[in-house]
């Protein structure tokens, strides 16, 4: 059965994922920014919940074209989060022309593999903005990566079925994990495309606890955007688990 991975930002989210039957979590901060590297203390707290923790290593929001200083920083972050209890890391980098930056990815994977214990390495959704997601996936077996997280280059994974299926064929030995706008109702079609796992944020907006007025803290964000955060919704995780267990044999159109 394909695995269920839930993106979380806290120990509370990891506990929800565990209680509702997820197989592992991906941990990050700044989920609304596409995810950023969490602190060592947060990694330790989430690892203590008991599920395997894949930690996103991304030093800033924005594009995936990094300079040498940023790559060095992320290599150090890889070592830090693994030392803090991560079961794996989620990394990626692109060249300016949209090709996979194999030198940078190799450096990040090597940092993970020097942990002295088995560590999984996932290529994140940089693959979806690469010039050719299928060709990019085909490079991963030679780089020693464990899996790739992808929407098939589409706005949402449910719209990228054909490309996800092509990635499965192009990268034998690498787990293709469908992620990006995944809803539980998408899961039968995604699993029929041959993916090894599905990835959901399963998030909802938390209720605000404040009573006082709110002043925006950033020039580009409204008070409504800032005066909240996201939490893991147990009902969405439970429904995703149910859909995986009762999925029907839906085939993607070709």
TrEMBL record:
UniProt signal peptide: none
Keyword Protein transport carried by entry: no
Subcellular location: Cytoplasm
Main subcellular location of this protein, as a coarse class: cytoplasm
Pfam families in alphabetical order: CutC (PF03932)
Protein family membership: Belongs to the CutC family.
Name of the featured protein: PF03932 family protein CutC
Species: Streptomyces sp. 900105755
């Amino acid at each position: 059965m394909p695995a269920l991975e839930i993106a979380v930002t806290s120990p509370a989210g990891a506990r929800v994922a565990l209680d509702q039957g997820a197989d592992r979590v991906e941990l990050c901060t700044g989920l609304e920014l596409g995810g950023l590297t969490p602190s060592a203390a947060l990694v330790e707290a989430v690892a203590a919940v008991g599920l395997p923790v894949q930690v996103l290593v991304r030093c800033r929001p924005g594009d995936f074209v990094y300079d040498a200083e940023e790559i060095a920083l992320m290599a150090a972050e890889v070592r830090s989060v693994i030392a803090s209890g991560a079961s794996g890391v989620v990394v990626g980098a692109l060249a300016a022309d949209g090709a996979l930056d194999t030198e940078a990815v190799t450096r990040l994977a090597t940092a993970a593999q020097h942990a002295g214990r088995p560590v999984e390495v996932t290529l994140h959704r940089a693959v979806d903005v690469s010039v050719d997601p299928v060709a990019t996936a085909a490079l991963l077996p030679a780089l020693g990566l464990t899996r790739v997280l992808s929407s098939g280059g589409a706005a949402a994974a449910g719209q990228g079925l054909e490309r996800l299926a092509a990635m499965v064929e192009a990268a034998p030995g690498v787990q293709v994990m469908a992620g990006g706008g995944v809803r539980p109702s998408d899961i039968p079609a995604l699993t029929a495309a041959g993916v090894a796992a599905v990835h959901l944020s399963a998030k909802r907006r938390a209720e605000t606890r404040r009573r006082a007025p709110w002043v925006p803290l950033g020039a580009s964000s409204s008070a409504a955007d800032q005066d909240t955060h996201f939490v893991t919704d147990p009902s969405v995780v439970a429904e995703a688990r149910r859909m995986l267990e009762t999925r029907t044999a839906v085939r993607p159109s070709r």
